[in-house]
Amino acid sequence: MSSAVPPTATDVVPLTEPADGVGRVVDTPAALDRVVERFAAGTGPVAADAERASGYRYGQATYLVQLRREGAGTALLDPVALPDLSAIGDAVGDAEWVLHAASQDLPGLIEHGLRPARVFDTELAARLLGLERVGLAAVVAELLGLGLAKEHSAVDWSTRPLPEDWLRYAALDVEVLVELRDRLAERLEADGKAEWAAQEFEAERTAAPPAPRLEPWRRTSGTHTLRDRRQLAVVRGLWEARDASARARDVSPGRVLPDRAIVAAARALPRTVPQLTALPEFAGKATRRRAPAWQRAIDEALALPEDRLPSQRGPRTDGPPQPRAWAERDPVAARRLTTARELLATMSGDLHVPVENLLQPDALRRLCWTPPDPARAPEIAEFLRGRGARPWQIELVAAPLGSAFAALP
């Protein structure tokens, strides 16, 4: 198993300049054609990364794509000016694409026509190897002894033109990805985890887009502290008003109205604009300017009849209840879950793989709440297969879980 000692700060060599320098952003069809020619003539995997403007813009649009390939160098592409980048995908054919935290970037790449035929995820590989820190800078430092600066990771990538130092940062993010991939692949092979990784990468590459979240307003931070349905209606009304405004202005919702302001208004239930703006969370100039719109949303929530108020429990789903309620609702299921969690925690330590990577938490909860009858290894294997577990996971956990369930009183 992997047991390398992470390098100290003095062992790490700062990586400050891309080998080929910082090129111009590709934002014209003619420049894109030249990139296509270079990448078609290149060899080996394609290192890829994408930058969004989370916290600044509405949604998760991609504002910069970085690609690098041996013999082709690095290309920084503007997907706003060039929304169709499929020609690059066609040029590299079935080459493997190397990404860090691929699940974050793949949707944006696919949206712009970049559909990798194969994927290697360096973050997921680091997780399977049991590395303590799996951020790109940490993994590069531990395995390659190089230091990546991360001071621009949370900037507004929708800015145009992009500053030179931001572009340098972006180019460095793909500079050593292929070298890192090779080092990780060696360790996966040595640890007997190469096939595990291959299955995980393919599952990530072919994953379906997530279904729209039911009642997304319930994710407003602090909502769990509210116990009154009328207060929840105010949260819902303000969340929907905020979302409509943010979408129309292409601004991150949190910049339009913070969650803490929504919850404060729901707790206070103001009846007038002066009462609303008396709340400290609504004292800001921009928030006060839009106060009449926020009060209208509150008034509409306050006027709702009882039968249109949101429930305390949230929308019905086909999944099990929250584990904290299991002991009361089904003590046997609660014992199964406790036993299964203890078993997986032990396996996690022995295999140096995080528990959540051994088996998806949702699949485990569903198995423990409504196990197949009988709860033996073959039936458990089929159950988990139907819920997205990979073959390597099933091979590891099905039999031990079946034995553990059988031993329960």
From TrEMBL:
GO terms for molecular function: 3'-5' exonuclease activity; nucleic acid binding; nucleotide binding. GO terms for biological process: nucleobase-containing compound metabolic process. Residues 228-308 form the HRDC domain. Pfam families: DNA_pol_A_exo1, DNA_pol_A_exoN, HRDC. InterPro entries: 3'-5'_exonuclease_dom, Exo_C, HRDC-like_sf, HRDC_dom, HRDC_dom_sf, RNase_D-like, RNaseH-like_sf, RNaseH_sf. Residues 302-330 are annotated as: Disordered. It comes from the Bacteria. This is Ribonuclease D. It comes from Krasilnikoviella flava. The lineage of its organism: Bacteria, Bacillati, Actinomycetota, Actinomycetes, Micrococcales.
